[in-house]
Amino acid sequence: MKNTFRILFSLLIVTSIISCQKEEGTIYDVLDYETGAVLRTLSVDNALYNSSEPTSAFVVTVEEQDEKDGGLLESVDIYVSLRDLTPDNGTAVAVDKFVKSFDASYFTTSPVGLPMATLSATYAESFGALGLPASDVQPGDLFQMELRLNLTDGRTFGKSSAAGIITGGFFASPFSYNALITCSPQPGDYTVDMHDSYGDGWQTNTGNGGDGIRVNIDGTIVVVAMCSPYGGSNVGSDCDPAQGLCVTGDYYDATDIVTIPAGTASATWNFPGDNYGEISFEVYGPGGEELYVGAQGETAPGLLPITLCAQ
Question: Where do the structural domains in the chain lie, given as residue ranges?
């Protein structure tokens, strides 16, 4: 019995020593860090590139913070990579191409006393940095814009050095942003065929109706939605017949038209989501061109890659 006690006591001592050597848990991961720097996102002012307008720009406003409250800021560089989402013209690759740099003198002082600036890069600047022929970049592709923060002590921080704890939440410092490439759209009537496999209309971002597809035509919002019989219990829902923003078929199928006027500079389509995985839809251009097929339950919330460029 005494031998057993000695063994247990020895194990407790060893365990105690090991525990003192290394604490585990999120709080210790937070405290166990090398002091660095962040670029906190204050606002993404524009994340759409219009390939028909070389001066259209990606614009983001950021605030810099380092261990000396901005005293180490030297410059911020913008890099671009191409994410080719239009394989019909082949798959082009261009990664980490330098676009431009903003010196510390470009920054002003934020309300909390830290360096702040609105940074931008035009389509012409970003496309030129890729070094690709125009045929390799099409509307529907993405430019991935990365900010790299250079400090006066020689260190650089960017997407690869950003831990998960600073990419979201208060710091909101992802260093990387997606910019969708669009174009000036062909004018005319665009047909949207909507379906619901359960036969109770669209339930998008809520269980009772929800929002419809929102088409932003030069700042004017046009709503496309399939009505739901439950809309009345969700006041303000785009899919509520009482709102007059949706069309009613038999709650399985419905069709609506979006008219894009001549001279429109930009038209973007935003899908709110699919609450129960029952929604599908197709979008056709003025000449019957199939522009997008959203298979049942497979369309994620966000911008839709719907493009038909004006001639």
Answer: 37-182, 188-304
